[in-house]
Amino acid sequence: MSLIGAATAVGTTTLYLCLCLLYLSIAVDAYTPIDNFTISCGFDGISFDGDQTWTGDMRSKLFQQDKPSVTARALAQSSSTNSVPYTTARLSYSNFTYSFPVTPGQKFIRLYFYPTSYEQGFERSKAFFTVTSNTFTLLRDFNASLNADAQSSDTVFIEYIINVEEGQRLNLTFAPSAIQSELYAFINGIEILSMPTNLYYTDSQNKAGLKLVAYTNSFFSISNNSALRKEYRFNVGGNDISPRDDTGMLRSWENDQNYVTSPSALPVDINSTQLSFTLVPNYTAPDPVYRTVRSMGMNATLNKISNLTWKFPVDSGFIYMLRLHFCELDTKVIQLSDKVFYIYIDDKLAEETANVLKWSEGQKGVPVYKDYAVQILGNEKKHSLSLKLHPQTEITDYTAYFDAFLNGLEIFRISDPQSNSLAGPNPDPLPPAPAVSQQPIQNQKKSSSRTVIGVVAGVITGVVLLFLVVAFFLDRHGRKVKHAMSEAGKSKWAPSYFPTTKSTHTRRSSSFPSDLCLYFSISEIRAATNNFDDVFKVGVGGFGNVYKGYIDNNTAPVAIKRLKPGSQQGAHEFKTEIEMLSQLRHLHLVSLIGYCNENQEMILVYDYMARGTLRDHIYGTDNPPLSWKQRLQICIGAAQGLHYLHAGAMHNIIHRDVKSTNILLDEKWIAKVSDFGLARVGPTGISRSHITTMVKGSFGYLDPEYYIRQRLTLKSDVYAFGVVLLEVLCGRPPFLRSVEKQEACLDEWVRKFHSEGKIDHTVDPSLKGTIAPESLKKFSDLAMECLLDDGNQRPSMNEVVWGLEFALKLQESAENTTFNLQDQR
Ligand SMILES: *[C@@H]1O[C@H](CO)[C@@H](O)[C@H](O)[C@H]1NC(C)=O
Ligand SMILES: *[C@@H]1O[C@H](CO)[C@@H](O)[C@H](O)[C@H]1NC(C)=O
Ligand SMILES: *[C@@H]1O[C@H](CO)[C@@H](O)[C@H](O)[C@H]1NC(C)=O
Ligand SMILES: *[C@@H]1O[C@H](CO)[C@@H](O)[C@H](O)[C@H]1NC(C)=O
Ligand SMILES: *[C@@H]1O[C@H](CO)[C@@H](O)[C@H](O)[C@H]1NC(C)=O
Ligand SMILES: *[C@@H]1O[C@H](CO)[C@@H](O)[C@H](O)[C@H]1NC(C)=O
Ligand SMILES: *[C@@H]1O[C@H](CO)[C@@H](O)[C@H](O)[C@H]1NC(C)=O
Ligand SMILES: *[C@@H]1O[C@H](CO)[C@@H](O)[C@H](O)[C@H]1NC(C)=O
Ligand SMILES: *[C@@H]1O[C@H](CO)[C@@H](O)[C@H](O)[C@H]1NC(C)=O
Questions:
Q1: Model confidence over 379-392: pLDDT tens digits?
Q2: Domain housing 717
Q3: Residue 86: phi, psi to the nearest 5?
Q4: What is the 102 CA–ligand 3 centroid distance (Å)?
Q5: Whose CA is nearest to atom 4 of ligand 5?
Q6: By C-alpha distance, which of 339, 306, 310, 305 is closest to 324?
Q7: Tens digits of residue pLDDT in 317-326
Q8: How far is the CA of 64 from the centre of ligand 3 (A)?
Q9: Same structural domain for residues 160 and 225?
Q10: 164, 295, 520, 738: which has the fewest C-beta neighbours closer than 10 Å?
Q11: Ligand 6 near 175 CB (within 6 A)
Q12: Residue 435 in domain
């Protein structure tokens, strides 16, 4: 939720004191799990994904089976999914079991599924199975692909909680369904984690249990004989909280925005220096949950008040537990009677006089939570469970402020006591949507694989949009920018370089290069973009928007890239981009003018690139086609930029996201390589030729060595650049969904014609007859060399530069002779 929105709202309603610079933090005792397994299935080795260390199950004794299961790799992987645990899986046509030696007590079980087609003939649609754990059924006849599609996600992540008795192991059995032949079961990742005793279960000695909604004086206990399945977990009114920032239990907390249905629900940041934990244990929820609220957002008059409403789809036939987290921080609230409200759950009155200040024993800034149980009966498959808050109005002089609020919310499904099952039905199949793709938008990558990634429905336009995204930047020539250094701003974070790196050899400490890169205040950025006016917007993407703005007394156009606030991944890429670009100066790299990191905003300022992306000029637009010589010159420039990264700069830097939309053009058609958010410092020292890392990059450009073996080398960029060369030659994208299979993948399609000596069949029609045959041969041979499977055999970027310059010379000399190019037709 944008802070501007919150700030204006607060300005007008004076509800809460909004804190824009929220850098306070209270030391919170985190929980340390005793049992802690993070297993990547079908994987042999250890891999760190930035959040946690995944251990392969291949050599582990955790694994038993009735008949052999197999391990296999995904045939293709969307770029939105992390390579660990999703590239590999354990799969079987018969039952298999993992058996974990754990201490007695309550445990989180987290299951990671990536429904896709796997090697050895495991088809995506044939994954259909039951999962049991000790006495509980977690999933029954689970159609993995259907569930992923229904969530518009590539992956399915489910969290359970069960209790393990003294002397028991924790078993997880995967059993293919027998309703049809050739169905199989699979799993990509398993996480088992201890949790504090009775964090969610009922301590029957000390507590009455959960208030059962709609029954007077009825209470419901969650005993050790029950299991739970997490349905929702929200940081209400705040940003997503990644597992790493939880209180040691690796839970992720999401923003609730998509579930709010009432219009007046405002999210608000609170200046909460007073926050202290006394009533709830410190680990109950991470600190930021209690620092943001969603409230009615107005001192409404009686007749104008509506319910503050959320709606959550859930399966019918279960009892659900709702945990509501509160923390009263409203400066106006002083007396116990100041803010009293109703709570309705599923349209039934759950609380008539919710009074947070009273619950926290009159102390402000003290977190509390309230648990409720609600039974969802009925025949409908999916039920829309509502939560509504409403100020007390019956007794008009009772509550001083007509307001209601919520800080956090968790919803769990409770296992059916008869069947011990938590399994619900499969969702209804989606109507056939021609464009639903498994290769979603690259910019939606998340660092946390457990976050369900929503794939924009019309992915076909998404793919186009994605590539529109990165249009901005450059010209490093003496742009005189107003000096806007702010000492305060510069030291806001001490960058920890490359937190996703597994070992130390690529880590280096570095402070912000403030001498090379300017700091802008948020007010300067606002002034330059007329407060982020849509009129100035020139690009949109998963990371946020790009605006064209003016600095230097409105004379110099700049591209202003505003990252979405709150994303861990975004914050990391933001730092990387500043670190990299501010130290690199080259005619063929975009120049970073400065940045702004204030009010939780992450903004990058580049020189404006008048002609947009290379792709904008080779296909899919109305721009006039470029001549062959222009194309060669652009390719040479881009290759020189990459060569500088690989060999010329202080470090050998791997760009990792070379593609035709990351090559930008200035008004003089000079090519500039852009977007260093994924760039990595490459291997150093003679002994190292590659680094192992999780796979990132863009679909269609991924080096097979990198993609299959996680071996990232300088030659991974050479491969991607080879794809760009083919795009330039053929005037089409790396991947075409709409055509015959053998034509869909640009690389394979060209390779076929090249091997048959018919490369001219693939040439962009607008170039036909204009390319000298020698030039074409040199160029296409070079491109094919860049695309060789074995990275060692690919040319270096320097050799690519030479090859392209040679192709240009051949073209020029052909044009200077009497050779009649038209004869080619
Ligand atoms: C936040 O509250 C503290 C203590 O009440 C106060 O000193 C500080 O100025 C406040 N910060 C803002 C930005 O309002
Ligand atoms: C789990 O154990 C590993 C070491 O085995 C440790 O690095 C990691 O931090 C632990 N996770 C949690 C949540 O404590
Ligand atoms: C549930 O089991 C845990 C340990 O397994 C125990 O500490 C706890 O007291 C039990 N709870 C109840 C209500 O029996
Ligand atoms: C778990 O599996 C082991 C080995 O198959 C078995 O001996 C044990 O009884 C199982 N435990 C539970 C709780 O099902
Ligand atoms: C599972 O769902 C897919 C659609 O994603 C469907 O094609 C397939 O037939 C379903 N499998 C079974 C066994 O019903
Ligand atoms: C596999 O597991 C299912 C469900 O747990 C069970 O019904 C079936 O008997 C098991 N099959 C074998 C061969 O053990
Ligand atoms: C929570 O943490 C604070 C600060 O570390 C500590 O003073 C307090 O005792 C803790 N409270 C509980 C209930 O653990
Ligand atoms: C809210 O409305 C009541 C009744 O009109 C008024 O007395 C009170 O001052 C208002 N409070 C605020 C903060 O505006
Ligand atoms: C708020 O929701 C409750 C429960 O659904 C309903 O009874 C009540 O009429 C609603 N109030 C308003 C003002 O909409």
A1: 788 999 999 998 87
A2: 615-819
A3: -85, -15
A4: 15
A5: 146
A6: 310
A7: 999 999 999 9
A8: 28
A9: no
A10: 738
A11: yes
A12: no
Residue 290 backbone dihedrals phi, psi, to 5 degrees? -85, -5
CA–chain centroid gap for 546, Å, is 19
Q: How far is residue 598's CA from residue 248's CA, in Å, rounded to a whole number?
A: 28
Q: Is 200 domain-assigned? A: no
CA 314 / ligand 3 centre spacing (Å): 28
| Token pair in block for residue 96 | 């298999």
Q: CB of 116 closer than 6 A to ligand 5?
A: no
Q: Check residues 502 and 107 and name the one with the higher pLDDT.
A: 107
| Residue bearing the CA closest to ligand 5, atom 9 | 125
**CA-to-CA distance for 137 and 415, rounded, in angstroms?**
9
Ligand 1 atom at minimal distance to the Cα of residue 24: 1
pLDDT mean over 646-667: 82
**Among 3, 24, 271, 275, which is best to mutate for testing ligand 1, by the most ligand atoms less than 8 A from CB?**
271
Query: How far is residue 718 CA from its own chain's centroid?
Result: 26
Residue type, 802: W
Could you tell me if 187 and 313 lie in one domain? Answer: no
- Asked if 616 contacts 471 with a C-beta cutoff of 8 angstroms, the reply is yes
| Residue 748 domain-assigned (yes or no) | yes
Tell me the CA–centroid distance for residue 22 and ligand 7, in Å: 21
- Ligand 8 pocket by Cβ (under 6 Å): 299, 332
Q: Which residue out of 403, 475, 657, 747 is catalytically annotated? A: 657
My answer on whether 188 and 228 are in the same domain is no
Nearest atom of ligand 3 to the alpha carbon of 105: 5
**426 CB near ligand 3 (under 6 Å):** no
Residue 600 Cβ inside 6 Å of ligand 3? The answer reads no
pLDDT at 496: 23
Nearest alpha carbon, ligand 1 atom 1: 271
Query: What is the per-residue pLDDT for 444?
Result: 34
pLDDT of residue 329: 84
Q: Is the peptide bond between 431 and the residue preceding it cis, with omega within 30 degrees of 0?
A: no
Identify the residue whose C-alpha is closest to ligand 9 atom 7: 347
Residues 255 and 190 in one domain: no
Give the distance (Å) from ligand 8 centre to CA of residue 338: 11
Q: Band of the pLDDT at 220, cuts 50, 70, 90?
A: confident
In DSSP terms, 191 is beta-bridged to: 38, 110
pLDDT per position as a tens digit, 569-596: 677 777 777 777 777 778 888 888 888 8
Instruction: Choose one of 390, 414, 438: the last residue of a domain.
Output: 414
Residue 501 pLDDT level (bands cut at 50, 70, 90): very low
Ligand 7 mean position, distance from CA 294 (Å): 26
Instruction: Confirm whether 154 is a catalytic residue.
Output: no
Q: What is the pLDDT of residues 436-490, one digit of tens each?
A: 333 333 333 333 333 222 222 232 223 222 222 222 222 222 222 222 222 222 2
Give the chain's domain count.
4
pLDDT band at 418 (very low <50, low <70, confident <90, very high): confident
Q: CB of 19 closer than 6 A to ligand 1?
A: yes
For 280-317, the pLDDT digits (tens) are 888 899 988 998 888 876 544 544 667 889 999 999 99
- The three-class DSSP label of residue 345 is strand
Which neighbouring-strand residues pair with 595?
Answer: 519, 604
Ligand nearest to the CA of 329: 1
The pLDDT mean for the chain works out to 77
Predicted confidence at residue 678, as pLDDT, reads 65
Atom index in ligand 2 nearest the CA of residue 33 equals: 14
* Residue 236, token pair as written in the block: 């209400």
Is residue 109 exposed (0-12), middle (13-18) or buried (19+ Cβ within 10 Å)?
buried
DSSP E strand boundaries for 465-555: 518-519, 537-541, 544-551
**Based on the domain organization, do 583 and 542 belong to the same domain?**
yes
Residue 178 alpha carbon to ligand 6 centre in Å: 9
User: Count of residues for the chain?
Assistant: 825
User: What single string gives the DSSP state of each residue in 748-774?
Assistant: HHHHHHHHTT-GGGGS-GGGTTTS-HH
